[in-house]
């Protein structure tokens, strides 16, 4: 196992074994909507480290999925090893390090920090695998990310923003299913309270009068205590509610490509009082106007109409076959190992 390095910038990879190795780069990268996906092939022992990103709006969470071999990680005084069939969540809001041996092949999915914090108030509690992963959910998540990489690491995904939204939703669902009972955490009571508050917000997003005062009253806590729960994640109650409303609106628009509901109707449905304000917030958050989400969905290739790539011998085959060859064995073959919790 390669030793961990000293501090290096986020863009700088260090500690690659071998001098003057001019072989092919061991990384394949692609961007899917707001997500960055990287496949690190077994090539050389690798060690990399990232400096802390100061702003939450510029930071990401890194979700690491070993496919073969194992990956060592270190963050916030916690160290461990993730093996095939497992994952580990790391934060760019604090310095962390990764290292792997020459046999390791793994995926790194980078999710904007604001996206996960808009779905899980307690996301920082799950950094560096503090709790035991849910085995069934982990297999589903690892399989889905492996499938996404297999299909789209070389070719653009249709309607990438919609795909990114669904991936982020399932990541949040999986992380939220981690078994906190396996760890002795003095903040368990705060976690369960935050979970109730998030559930209340989710069920009342369409309420235009939803306010911090009403949210605090639903759990019989003071406003100051409510604010402190969200301060733990460097966000505010209002920011959290708005992010969830925008995400809900995106899901509604993507699921309604024929336009049965207007943008105005969707804005009011998710609790916005002003359509212009909704459009500005939506465009700033997703980098696409609400009306354009449906156009992107309509322009996406229909199932069964995949473009066929021409092979060197002149024959044609679906793009999926080319991607599968590049990615290696089907992703589900690497998820049969027993999951282990490493402390």
From TrEMBL:
Record flagged with keyword Translocase: no
Protein keywords: DNA-binding, Transcription, Transcription regulation
The HTH araC/xylS-type domain, residue ranges: 195-296
Annotated spans, Disordered: 293-325
InterPro entries: AraC-bd_2, AraC_XylS_family_regulators, Homeodomain-like_sf, HTH_AraC, Tscrpt_reg_AraC-type_HTH
Origin superkingdom: Bacteria
Pfam families for the chain: AraC_binding_2, HTH_18
Protein name (Swiss-Prot/TrEMBL): Helix-turn-helix domain-containing protein
Source organism phylogeny: Bacteria, Pseudomonadati, Pseudomonadota, Alphaproteobacteria, Hyphomicrobiales
